[in-house]
Amino acid sequence: MKKYNKSQSYDPEVLEKIHNVHRQIMKDFTEVCEKYGLSCFAVYGTAIGAVRHGGFIPWDDDVDMAMLREDYDKFFKVFPKELKEKYNLLTPERDERYACTVTHLQRRGTVFISEMSQDLKCEQCIYMDIFPLDYVAEGRIRQMLQGLTANFWGKMLFLAGSSKPVITYRGIVGEAMSLICRCVHHLIRIFRISPRWFYRRYMKTATKYNHSRKRSEYVTSFEYMGCLKDKIKRKEIFPLKKVPFEDMEVNLPHNNHEFLSKVYGNYMKLPPKDERVNHMPLVIQFEGEKPIYKKTGI
Q1: pLDDT tens, position by position, for the chain (298 residues)?
Q2: Domain that holds residue 47
């Protein structure tokens, strides 16, 4: 069974280089969104970093940005004209070797391969996460069905690319779940079901109510288990507010405090050291430099 060490620490110089790349990705992405009038705003760890640290969480190594689905779709249309020379967009629709629901905006010429992603054969670069927000169904039963179905297809998508998800359970239960995951992965490979096939079913579920009369006033990101618990009213996201972030500014949702409190509780309190999560890579490479391997000191 795979174990995941949450408290791995970077060499400070390496982490600063990662943050430099992330700053540039955020700046380029935000400029394009502002040029075309697209809503984009920091969420999750990046939003916490903005209000608690005035920038990146000191141990964090990724960026989380969200958009309404309609703006996300428009961004994909302008991307080739504006950012294709420096970046690539990674989804299973664009590269069927990628087995994850989260969209990555990746910096070309870099490499970032983590323990979680080491089995994937697609190009893996230093990236920013983009979370599109979709409408939640109206009514408790429809909501539960939508959330469970989206989560099921998301897990199947992950298992299409890897047989070793992080399993938090230990002992017999953990071993049994690990065995089931390996069996499902190999069955998917035997029947040659591509990650794209699962992704399309995930997308169908996540976007099902975007243009339906049976939608509620809530939106969420269906990429994770807590998607329904963390749903927020679309109208309360706006107007966005700008806050300092390192040497720039980022947008936050108008209801940022309520949203972060719902997801994390007291998000202004620093977590214990053993809960300071990052995505420590096995291999990382910055543009124009030689790759660095974990065993040599990332």
Answers
A1: 234 445 578 999 999 999 999 999 999 999 999 999 999 999 999 999 999 999 999 999 999 999 999 999 999 999 999 999 999 999 999 999 999 999 999 999 999 999 889 999 999 999 999 999 999 999 999 999 999 999 999 999 999 999 887 777 778 888 888 899 999 999 999 999 999 999 999 999 999 999 999 999 999 999 998 999 999 999 999 999 999 999 999 999 999 999 999 999 999 999 999 889 899 999 999 999 999 998 777 9
A2: 12-135+214-297
In a domain, 149, yes or no: no
CATH number of the domain to which 93 belongs: 3.30.460
Q: Does residue 261 belong to any structural domain of this protein? A: yes
Q: Which residues contact 164 (CB under 8 A, 6 or more apart)?
A: 2, 119, 178, 181, 182
pTM of this prediction exceeds 0.90: yes
* 220 is a domain residue: yes
Between strands 64-68 and 127-137, the pairing is parallel
Q: What is the tally of structural domains in the chain?
A: 1
In-domain check, residue 181: no
One-letter amino acid for residue 269 of the chain: K
